[in-house]
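Here is the promised in-class demo. Please do not try to memorize the tokens; focus on the logic of going from shape to residues.
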């Protein structure tokens, strides 16, 4: 089965908001990359010792713009992004290391819930379905009926050379995803690239652990079928369903014309774990004045404070169901300065302190 960008019936809820945002591809410009993906790459670069401010300055990107996870950058800027990273680290292969580290870490990252799918094949399909939102520079497909199953990356022949670094980064991220889901190295059969090697071929082979060929008819990665269909240790149907339902509300807002509420919901979801969320910062990322955005939100039925509270409660419910994080970590992920601030908010939501959440693992009820 060749999987492209049509959600499966089981995962329909979690991906319906993407359909509403993209509007069959009409809502976003072609050949662009999302700010959300750029932020993940920057986070990986910082983990490698890179200076975020210097990198952004060299690229010519505005930090404010990146705060809006739904904003886009052109393919030319995306390519310059990777060139700046190579120069910053003085390493032409740094994008391969960053692809290993640019992983989703929590529910603030789009697609984090995909790891809750039943097996590696389902996780991969989910990520392929998310690709148009993350980037539409190349189209990734996954054929589960192949012998062995394989991915392909499709893009214009005129851009083979320009896209070489970005495509290599993308291939590494899918190899890394396979390893993370199964907690073991992916059994890759082969990796093929349309472009020519950019550095010593042995560095590619060390990363992928399989034969790597260049100048091929298509960019393709083959993976062992016995790994693809092996059950995932992270599978969690209840949490997957809860994460899916969380997107119903902003998706409905988008459909009914409450676009400021919908975009603000996604902004706050992405921003909570990075810096204290404020109305003026969110307005700036949308290119609006604080006063205008405040008025738009109220007209669409919710104040900024109520919306922020709504997002925090939704996220808190997921983290409690996940049941792998300390209360202190959850407080930080929800954007609270300390545990006491989170405790006060939680008591306002539920009437009980979060220390008692062990008897109620679902946390506060969503609004």
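The designed amino acids, position by position:
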């Amino acid at each position: 089965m060749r999987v492209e960008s049509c959600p499966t019936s089981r995962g329909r809820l979690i991906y319906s908001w993407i359909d509403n945002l993209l509007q069959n591809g009409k809502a976003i410009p072609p050949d662009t990359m999302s700010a959300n993906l750029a932020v993940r790459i920057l986070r990986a670069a910082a983990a490698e010792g890179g200076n975020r401010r210097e990198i952004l300055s060299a690229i010519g990107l505005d930090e404010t713009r990146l705060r809006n996870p739904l904003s886009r950058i052109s393919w030319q800027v995306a390519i310059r992004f990777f060139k700046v990273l190579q120069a910053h680290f003085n390493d032409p292969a740094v994008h391969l290391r960053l692809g290993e580290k640019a992983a989703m870490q929590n529910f603030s990252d789009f697609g984090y819930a995909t790891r809750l799918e039943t097996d590696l094949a389902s996780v991969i399909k989910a990520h392929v379905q998310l690709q148009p939102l993350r980037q539409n520079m190349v189209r990734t497909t996954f054929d589960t009926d192949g012998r062995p199953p394989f991915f392909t990356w499709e893009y214009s022949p005129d851009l083979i050379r320009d896209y070489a670094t970005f495509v290599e980064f993308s291939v590494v991220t899918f190899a890394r995803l396979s390893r993370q889901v199964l907690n073991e190295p992916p059994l890759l059969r082969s990796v093929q690239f349309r472009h020519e090697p950019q550095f010593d071929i042995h560095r590619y082979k060390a990363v992928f652990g399989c034969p790597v060929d260049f100048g091929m008819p298509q960019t393709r990665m083959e993976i062992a079928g016995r790994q693809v269909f092996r059950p995932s240790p992270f599978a969690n149907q209840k949490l997957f369903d809860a994460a899916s339902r969380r997107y119903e509300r902003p998706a409905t807002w988008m459909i009914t014309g409450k676009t400021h509420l919908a975009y603000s919901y996604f902004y706050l979801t992405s921003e909570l774990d990075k810096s204290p969320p404020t109305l003026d910062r969110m307005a700036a990322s949308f290119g609006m004045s604080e006063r205008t955005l405040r008025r738009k939100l109220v007209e669409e039925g919710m104040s900024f404070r109520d919306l922020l509270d709504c997002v925090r409660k939704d996220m808190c419910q997921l983290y409690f169901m996940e049941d792998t994080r300390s209360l202190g970590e959850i407080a930080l992920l929800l954007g609270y300065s300390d545990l006491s601030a989170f405790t006060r908010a939680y008591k306002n939501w539920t009437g009980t302190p979060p220390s008692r959440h062990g008897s109620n693992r679902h946390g506060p009820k969503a609004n």
